[in-house]
Amino acid sequence: MTICIGVICDNGKKAVVAADRMITAEHLSIEFESEDAKIIQLTDKVVAMTAGDALIHTEVFGAAKAKIDTSITLVSQVAEKVKEAFVEERKKRFEEEALKPRGLTLVEFYGGAHRTLDPNIIMRLDRQLEDSRLDLQILIAGVDQNGAHLYHLVDPGTAQCFDSLGFAGIGSGYPHAMSVFIYNHFNPRMDLNKAVYLVYEAKRRSESAPGVGKEYIDIAIIGSKIRFLSATELDQLKKIYDAKIRLEKPPEIEEMIKSLRWEEG
To answer: What is the CATH number of domain 4-229?
Structure first.
């Protein structure tokens, strides 16, 4: 229940990301808008955003950051470390929930100790591991020496590159947001100004979906560094968006609709 957006623009040299601040933890039955941004910096030119359970990503990103050092310079390498941490967290939760109550670790289970269990239980546990989910989606955006890149990471720990499409999104507001880019024929060659505005419009359009936060919007431009837009810059985008909405719904159109007449019969 959220919206996170990433695009590539400026002839593939920059990335722009946006997110609301909606926090959801379904197993605790809580949902609220936080005062902290959901755009998480992984390196000086790579960020990540999440949709799903708000408590899980802390462990995943903590483990990933511990593996990211100065030798990692490519966005694809950062995405790989996040993917590894994602898979390990998924295994750890399965181990804690299904194996440790039976006195086993994952290594012991696949190392032969499982033979002491009933074969039906073994099959069930193996299937349970295959079906286990973190209820977490991750969108990674960044820039390296080869340009800007977008990766979408989902259960059970697979990553898909969206560089050729040039835009991606996650969360309940995804369909509304993506329609903006499709309608405007978005592609990675689009100039920065137009890309930033469309990202803003996509976030605002997504607010009609359930679970998308309306109080906050964070937008960051990623180039030689990561820079968040200021309140003044966001206000400029709001004025453009409000003007566009007014133009799309001029009063005379409403009058023309009201004046429509249909033949009898």
So the answer is: 3.60.20.10
Pairing verdict, β 30-33 and 22-25? antiparallel
The two beta strands, 14-19 and 4-9, are antiparallel
pLDDT band, residue 207 (cuts 50/70/90)? very high
Could you give the CA distance from residue 23 to residue 75 in angstroms, rounded to a whole number? Answer: 26
Q: Is the pLDDT of residue 112 over 80?
A: no
The pTM (predicted TM-score) of the whole model is 0.87
Q: What percent of the chain has pLDDT over 90?
A: 63
Q: Could you tell me if residue 10 is left (phi over 0), alpha (psi between -120 and 50 degrees) or otherwise beta? A: left
DSSP structure class, residue 216: -
Residues 34-61: pLDDT tens digits?
888 899 999 999 999 999 877 788 899 9
The predicted-structure confidence for 91-103, as pLDDT tens digits, reads as follows 888 888 888 887 7
Cα separation of 68 and 177, whole Å?
31
CB 185 within 8 A of CB 207: no
> In Å, how far from its chain's centre is CA 265?
52
Nearest-angstrom CA–CA distance, 20 and 234:
13
60 by DSSP, 3-state: which? helix
The full set of domain ranges for the chain reads 4-229
Residue 109 in contact with residue 120, Cβ under 8 Å?
no
Phi-psi group of 54: left, alpha or beta (phi > 0 → left; psi -120 to 50 → alpha; rest → beta): alpha
Q: Helix, strand or coil for residue 250?
A: coil
